[in-house]
Amino acid sequence: MNRSFEILDVTLRDGSHAMRHSFTEKQVEETARGLDKAGVSYFEVSHGDGLGGSSLQYGFSKVNELKLIEAASSVCSRAKVSVLLIPGIGIKDDLQDAVKAGAKMVRVATHVTEADVAAQHINLGRELGLKTVGFLMMAHMASTAKIVEQAKLFESYGAEIIYVTDSAGYMLPNEVTERIKALKENVSCEIGFHGHNNLSMAMANTIAAVEAGASYIDGSLRALGAGSGNTQTEVMVGVFERLGYNTGINLYDILDVANDVVAPFMQRPQEITGSSLILGYSGVYSSFLLHTQSAAQKFNVDERDILVELGKMKAIGGQEDLIFDVAQRLALNV
Length: 334
Ligand SMILES: C[C@H](O)CC(=O)C(=O)O
Ligand SMILES: [Mn+2]
Prior knowledge:
Mn(2+) binds at residues 14, 194, 196. Residues 5-255 form the Pyruvate carboxyltransferase domain. The active site is at 17 (proton acceptor). This protein is α/β, with parallel strands linked by helices. It has 2 domains: 6-265, Aldolase class I (TIM Barrel); 274-332, Helicase, Ruva Protein, domain 3. The chain is 46% helix and 13% strand. It is built from 14 helices and 8 strands. It has an 8-stranded parallel beta barrel, surrounded by 8 helices. Helix 5 (119-127) links the parallel strand 4 (103-111) and strand 5. It is globular, with a radius of gyration of 18 Å. It binds ligand LCEJXURD and manganese (II) ion.
């Protein structure tokens, strides 16, 4: 039986945020081997902020991501490695190097209103023969009409799949349904959805996305990802089987890699805490969580106040330095 949709696992990329970008080759190799055995078709490996993300602004990687991509690719017999690239953070050379290391898919990620910065990278993805995806981040910050407009740009550049990305874990199922349906009606690419669980909506939103026609869905093992984490891959396999879909993934095998490989290296349980809930409530980029915790500690202010303020300012990915500015202002009461 053909798969009803593809589950794309992002443990080794979104999980990099939760791991403070400290993945080792051994962790990556063992996770990749397990994902491959379980029947996952695509999984992502990069710094949490994509190729070239290792920096003072985002956090330095313990191990160069090209080595991690190589390690993952070397143990896969069926699964293909995807990489994330934010234009300007990652450059064309990074993508070419990632292909040499074994990448077979690129997801070119932009803020939801900035698809126009992705043309060159999407073109390059196609030229290199990669499965090429446009990934619209912080999708809650734009109207459905705007998302359709931006998706049409991605499509015109050659993207084969377009993602609605709930980076802040802010969206509710009806909002996901509306956006995915509109994309299905207005572009001919396949549609994907990437969720975060800050308001405990990741699974409900994922079901809404699939029922509205999404054919690529992101998840991570043990939910390892930014903020409260992503839709949990192994739980998705169970839930969608119960709903009558064919995920093509073996439930016991995916449980084994989640529990025997990923759980032991997690730095903390992936739960909804006060601060990670506020990310969703205020519409703040999930990967701001750990930076906010560091800033709150440094300036002795409440993490939640920083996040609420960032939400009001409509801060977006790439503005991580604002977190420290806000914490300092709160500390000085100015
Ligand atoms: C660079 C981001 O972490 C991409 C992502 O996973 C999201 O926006 O969510
Ligand atoms: Mn994410």
